[in-house]
Protein backbone atom coordinates (compact mmCIF):
# COMPACT_ATOMS: atom_id res chain seq x y z
CA UNK A 1 0.00 0.00 0.00
CA UNK A 2 1.35 3.38 -0.90
CA UNK A 3 1.55 5.65 2.11
CA UNK A 4 1.25 9.18 0.79
CA UNK A 5 4.89 9.40 -0.17
CA UNK A 6 6.12 9.58 3.38
CA UNK A 7 9.58 8.05 3.76
CA UNK A 8 9.77 4.48 4.95
CA UNK A 9 10.93 4.00 8.49
CA UNK A 10 14.59 3.09 8.65
CA UNK A 11 14.12 1.04 11.78
CA UNK A 12 11.21 -1.26 10.95
CA UNK A 13 9.43 -2.58 7.89
CA UNK A 14 5.88 -1.63 8.79
CA UNK A 15 5.92 2.08 9.54
CA UNK A 16 6.44 5.29 7.66
CA UNK A 17 7.85 8.50 9.07
CA UNK A 18 5.35 11.31 9.41
CA UNK A 19 6.32 14.94 10.06
CA UNK A 20 5.22 16.71 13.21
CA UNK A 21 5.10 20.43 13.79
CA UNK A 22 5.81 22.51 16.84
CA UNK A 23 5.49 26.14 17.77
CA UNK A 24 8.44 28.44 18.22
CA UNK A 25 8.96 31.00 20.95
CA UNK A 26 7.05 33.62 18.99
CA UNK A 27 4.10 31.31 18.46
CA UNK A 28 5.01 30.77 14.83
CA UNK A 29 4.57 27.28 13.52
CA UNK A 30 7.73 25.31 12.96
CA UNK A 31 7.01 22.65 10.37
CA UNK A 32 8.73 19.33 10.04
CA UNK A 33 10.46 19.68 13.36
CA UNK A 34 10.20 16.02 14.20
CA UNK A 35 9.54 12.79 12.37
CA UNK A 36 8.01 9.81 14.07
CA UNK A 37 7.36 6.28 12.89
CA UNK A 38 3.71 5.34 12.62
CA UNK A 39 4.38 1.85 13.96
CA UNK A 40 3.63 1.89 17.70
CA UNK A 41 5.92 -1.06 18.26
CA UNK A 42 8.83 0.79 16.74
CA UNK A 43 8.68 4.42 17.91
CA UNK A 44 11.69 5.44 15.89
CA UNK A 45 11.86 9.19 16.00
CA UNK A 46 14.02 11.97 14.70
CA UNK A 47 13.96 15.55 15.92
CA UNK A 48 15.56 18.69 14.66
CA UNK A 49 16.57 21.20 17.29
CA UNK A 50 18.79 24.23 16.80
CA UNK A 51 20.07 22.79 13.56
CA UNK A 52 21.02 19.50 15.15
CA UNK A 53 19.38 16.19 14.48
CA UNK A 54 18.50 13.99 17.43
CA UNK A 55 17.67 10.40 16.63
CA UNK A 56 15.65 8.01 18.75
CA UNK A 57 15.26 10.08 21.85
CA UNK A 58 12.92 8.66 24.46
CA UNK A 59 9.37 9.55 23.56
CA UNK A 60 7.62 11.82 26.00
CA UNK A 61 3.97 11.01 25.85
CA UNK A 62 1.26 13.52 26.55
CA UNK A 63 -0.54 11.05 28.75
CA UNK A 64 1.45 9.36 31.44
CA UNK A 65 0.72 5.69 31.90
CA UNK A 66 0.85 5.01 35.60
ZN1 LIG B 1 9.51 2.17 12.49
Please characterize this protein's 3D structure.
This protein has 66 residues and is mostly beta strands. The protein has one domain (1-48). Helices cover 0% and strands 38% of the residues. A four-stranded antiparallel β-sheet has the order 1-2-3-4, with no helix packed on it. Strand 1 and strand 2 (29-37) form a beta hairpin. The radius of gyration is 13 Å and the shape is globular. The model has no long low-confidence stretch (mean pLDDT 84). The chain binds zinc ion.
The residue-averaged pLDDT reads 84
**In one word, what is the shape?**
globular
How many alpha or pi helices?
Answer: 0
Strand order of the largest sheet: 1-2-3-4
Order of helices and strands: EEEE
- Our count of domains comes out at 1
Report the biggest beta sheet as strand number plus sense, adding barrel if it closes: 4 strands, antiparallel
Number of strands: 4
Class by alpha and beta content: mainly beta
